[in-house]
C-alpha cells in the first residue's frame, strides 16, 4: 500500500496549507529491492519518510557481523533523533522490497516541530516508544534464553494473531541476538505444544496467554 506524508503519525492533523507546503519541499525517490537508502555514519541532513514498501535497519559490529535492528514498514520516518541533534545516520537501511520515499530537508522539519506543538508532541511519543522497545530488547538479551526471547518478540508484534517474518527466521534471530538454528528450535517447540503455527513467511499465534507466560520468565 502506498501512503502519503499526511499518513505519517507525526504529521497527522496538520492544516492543509501546512501539508501542501511540506509536500512541495519533498524530494521523491523510488528504490528497488536491495538498494541502500542511507548508510550508517553518513550525515542525517534529511528526514527520510518511507511511503511504500519495507526496509531493513542494520549495523555492523566490530567483528564485521551484521546486526539487524528492525524491519520497518511504511509509513515511517527514519532517524528522527539524528535529525534533531544534527548527528549521523545510526543504521544502514536497505530496501527489502521496492520502496518509495520522500526526503524532507532538516531545516523545514525543525521549523515545523518548533511551530506546531501537536507535531512536537507526536514526535516525542514516537521517540518514547522507540526507547521503550530498545529497553525491552536489552532486557531480553541480558536475562532471557532464546525461547523466552522469541516468545517476547512474538508477543510484542502479534496483537492481531499473525506475525510476519519479513527477514525469515535468520532475520528474527539477528534482531534478538540468536542464531537461525536456535530460533527454529524454539519455534518448533512452541508449535509442538500448540502455542503457535508456522506458516510460509509468518507465525500464527494460537495461544497468546501461554506465549506471554513464556515471555515473562527469565531463564
Automatic annotation (TrEMBL):
This is Crp/Fnr family transcriptional regulator. Residues 144-209 form the HTH crp-type domain. Gene3D superfamilies: Jelly Rolls, Winged helix-like DNA-binding domain superfamily/Winged helix DNA-binding domain. Transmembrane segments: none annotated. SMART domains: cNMP, HTH_CRP. GO terms for molecular function: DNA binding; DNA-binding transcription factor activity. Keywords: DNA-binding, Transcription, Transcription regulation. It comes from Nonomuraea aridisoli. Residues 10-130 form the Cyclic nucleotide-binding domain.
